[in-house]
Each structure stands twice: as C-alpha cells, then as structure tokens.
Amino acid sequence: MEDDPDPAFRTYCHLFVARRPWRRGCIDDLLRDIADDKVAGVLITDTRLLRIHHPYDGGADVFLATSEERDRVRDRHADWLSRHPLSL
Fold first, then answer.
1. To which H or E segment does residue 73 belong?
2. Coil, strand or helix at 53
C-alpha cells in the first residue's frame, strides 16, 4: 500500500506487542487507562489468538474460541451484560 501523496490524507498506525505471564492484576493499570479513555485500540489475547478481549471506555467485546465457551462466560458474568432489550 502506498502513502497518499497528500499529507492531509496520510494515516498511521502504531503497534506494540508484549508477551507477559498471566497473574492477577497484571493489566489493571492498562484497563484503568482504557476506561479513562487515555489509551485505545487495545487487544488482549491468549498466545494462540483463540480468545480476544477488546476493552474500551464503555465496555468490552470478547471473542471466544467456541459458542459453548461463549455461553459459559456469558452465564458466569451475566451481571456484566447490558440490561438494554437489544443488549446494546
């Protein structure tokens, strides 16, 4: 892909990847920054990219490997779900 010759239409995307062993609380500061809209565009995944957590300043999207896993997580965290009739 070539950059647009007009600087007003150029866009940039910076990526940062870190691999960390999981321990309770290891991403709490990052999640707080996301909730406070200081950081955006974060994806948290397992090493095989089978499960993806995309938090943002108003909630999160969670993508899981199977519909069965999705249903288990949904049921375990039902109090986190939207009360809106359309689940918005």
1. helix 67-76
2. strand
Which contiguous run of DSSP H or E holds residue 61?
Answer: strand 59-63
Residue range 55-63: mean pLDDT, rounded: 91
User: Residue 31 and residue 56: Cα distance in Å, rounded?
Assistant: 8
The helix (run of H) or strand (run of E) holding residue 56 is strand 52-56
d(CA 29, CA 26): 8
Q: How many CB atoms lie within 10 A of CB 31?
A: 16
- 43-57 pLDDT per residue, tens: 999 999 999 999 998
Give the closest residue to 58 by CA, choosing from 26, 85, 86, 80: 80
Mean pLDDT score, 59-75: 93
At residue 80, φ and ψ (nearest 5 deg) are -85, -15
Nearest-5° Cα angle at 34, 53 to 38: 150
